[in-house]
Amino acid sequence: MEGKYCIITYGCQMNESDSERLAGQLEELGYHSVAEPDGADVIIINTCAIRETAEQKVYGKIGELKHLKQEKPDVLIGITGCMAQKNKKALFERAPHLDFVLGPYNIHHLKELVRAGSKRSAHVLKTEMRGANIEDFTDLKAARKSDVFAWVPIMQGCNKFCSYCIVPYVRGREWSRPLRSIVREVEELAAAGYKEITLLGQNVNAYGLDFGDGTNFADVLRAVEEVPGILRMRYMTSHPRDMTREMIDTIAACSKVVTQMHLPVQHGSDAVLQGMNRGYTIAHYRNLADYIRKQIPAVVLTTDLIVGFPGETEEMHRETLALLQDIRYDMAYTFIFSPRSGTPAARMTDKVSAEDASRRLQELMQVQNAISLERNRDMVGQVHEVIVEGPTKNKPENWFGRTSGNKMIIFPYADGMRIGDVLGVRADAAQTWLLRGTPVEEKRS
Ligand code: SAH
Ligand code: SF4
Ligand code: F3S
Questions:
Q1: Is the pLDDT of residue 339 over 90?
Q2: Pick from 77, 155, 169, 398: most CB atoms within 10 A?
Q3: Which has the closest alpha carbon to 230: 391, 445, 382?
Q4: Ligand 1 contact, 278 CB (< 6 A)
Q5: Closest-lying ligand to the alpha carbon of 348?
Q6: How many CB atoms lie within 10 A of CB 43?
Q7: What is the spatial distance between Cα 129 and Cα 343, in angstroms, rounded to a whole number?
Q8: 280 lines ligand 1 (CB under 6 A)
Q9: CB 424 within 8 A of CB 439
């Protein structure tokens, strides 16, 4: 078959990883990837439902594809990801030009579905969450975007039920991938020359709890550390409730585990954290952060924050601002609370006005941006090891790479530089989101 496919991905790294596993199935059928949906025979929108705006973007994209179906009725258009699981057949009602809807626990059905494509007569909906085996989808062969950096899913789902969050409803319960299956994938990646892997889960610190045999996230880190060839191991996302001292000690002890830790706090007020059902207090979080900084002095700590959660007062908001000054994150991803139907927070009544929420968001960003800049300035003058990722979008004569802490450094391209090279780069200047520098050492691989 000589077909073409286009996968459009929204949302988090889980979706990036799933998209590569969807692509892998299409490539096994002989399809090859194209960047734009025009001209593709199979078009997939891999969707996110985390906030209202995420869903709106997807609906916009679905609408844009309608004319393609009219011009070429044989094209297969499908929705996967979290909106597929959330909205199910309502997607067909809203957009009859769609051919299939596959939930995250059903992505392994893509191949058979596309193979049967010409015989289809109806909308295909697969959103059943029972009956599958986690390896059915985690062990699909991935068609990866990069030859150097790779996603490795280690678990699915979330049990935390933060009161604002849709994820547990659309990704199911915490479900861990067997350790041997993770190690096998990492070994294959190492043999294929990959240098950096990212272990993925909504809450990687809950890894193994469902096995009930004591296996935990530290075991994954130790097992992957043993695989020769891989230089760096990232992991996301960590949850302050399940992050143990043993895990922090293991992160500190494993030389391949990066110095970046994304540890979302969500808010600086205990009252709000309680309303969010986060399961920890600010005192607990501060203790954890202190211990992390003690054990991993070079740590690049990043976080997520939500403003405008129901009941958030000006005073509570100021507690978040104070926490930022206190913890001094390298970076914070800030979001305005978006009510998700079906979650407890969507039913809370003491709403924060849109004006207050956006002003508070601005205040958070202002405080954090100044701190981010200061932290980046602290890196100036030193040489940092980066793995080269390639040319920057705006200026191809400039290339960039990332440090272990995931800081982006932009530097001038030099003859012979290749994606995946490991370079020593001296940081010359700092900006809020990145650094500029000069390669100073011969490439090491
Ligand atoms: N599992 C990860 C992150 C999941 S979603 C964790 O628990 O940290 C990424 C971020 O989106 C969350 O950390 C949170 O800050 C934000 N988010 C989730 N639901 C949201 C909502 N309803 N409104 C606004 N932001 C939300
Ligand atoms: Fe959502 Fe909370 Fe689970 Fe993260 S830990 S995915 S925010 S429910
Ligand atoms: Fe979005 Fe689903 Fe990820 S809701 S953030 S794509 S788990």
A1: yes
A2: 155
A3: 445
A4: no
A5: 1
A6: 26
A7: 19
A8: no
A9: yes
